[in-house]
């Protein structure tokens, strides 16, 4: 087994159970790894402003040495007094994307600190705001609103409409953004420089370690690049087949049965 000095976990479908909780057992195993000198952190597509509120609910704040948000664009390292937000998506791109998709039964949003700005107020925006503890606001005139740039543009949809979103995405492209599905109800557009592995490389530079010394856990498409480029990429057994195929290893247990903790215990403790 590689000499691992940093473990990073995706949240949804990975560290979090389906009811969005982290067990006391998982937290205790993470702490034991930290006591052996392995740093621990989160690598998520979520805004770290939202994650910060939830760390106390999950009871994991003290275990997080590293926080990587917005799929790699946002980095917070409390112990090093570092907070960075890099590589936003252009407002003009967001306008083009909205026009390309707006006839579908979907909604759009961007995150700005603890606010969620939605294209329209509906059940989709209400759910995202509630789950992330955001204050919801409407964008209004998008040509005025998008005179500035944002970390990402999110399409929110019902699960039955995701295939239509994916199909429509095949007919829009630009050197100024990448897009991908992150959950059954979320599809995101980001600056092409943004990926979790680039964020991890930045963290490695700060900590003076190499990518080979990093273990990552993930389950979905937006985890692919970090699973491929980290020293040890581990897919959850509940992950999709494509994610499993490109990972170095697969957990024995799923996200509802402490799969991350079980793997850490067996491999590192």
Write up what this structure looks like:
There is one protein chain. This protein is α/β, with parallel strands linked by helices and 269 residues long. Helices cover 35% and strands 23% of the residues. The strands form two sheets. An eight-stranded mixed beta sheet has the order 5-4-3-2-1-12-13-14. Helix 2 (24-35) packs parallel to helix 11 (259-268). The longest helix is centred in the N-terminal third of the chain and has 12 residues, at 24-35. The termini are close together.
Overall geometric form: globular
State Rg.
18 Å
Helical region count? Answer: 11
The main pleated sheet reads as:
8 strands, mixed
Q: Record the strand order, biggest sheet.
A: 5-4-3-2-1-12-13-14
Strand content: 15-25%
Low-confidence stretches: none
From the N-terminal CA to the C-terminal CA, the straight-line distance is 12 Å
Number of strands: 14
* N-to-C order of helices and strands: EHHEHEEEHEEHEHEHEEHEHEHEH
- Percent helix: 25-40%
Structure class: alpha/beta
What's the overall average pLDDT, rounded? 95
Question: Tags for this entry?
Answer:
single chain; 269 residues; alpha/beta; 8-stranded mixed β-sheet; 6-stranded mixed β-sheet; 35% helix; globular
Brief description of this entry?
This protein has 11 helices and 14 strands.
Task: Break the fold down into its secondary structure elements and pairings.
Layout lengths: L5 E4 L1 H5 L8 H12 L3 E5 L4 H11 L7 E4 L4 E4 L4 E4 L5 H11 L5 E6 L2 E4 L4 H10 L2 E4 L3 H4 L7 E4 L5 H8 L8 E6 L2 E5 L5 H12 L6 E5 L5 H6 L2 E4 L5 H6 L2 E2 L8 H10 L1
Parallel strand pairs: 1-2, 1-12, 2-3, 7-8, 12-13, 13-14
Antiparallel strand pairs: 3-4, 4-5, 6-7, 6-9, 9-11, 10-11
Helix pairs in contact: 2-11
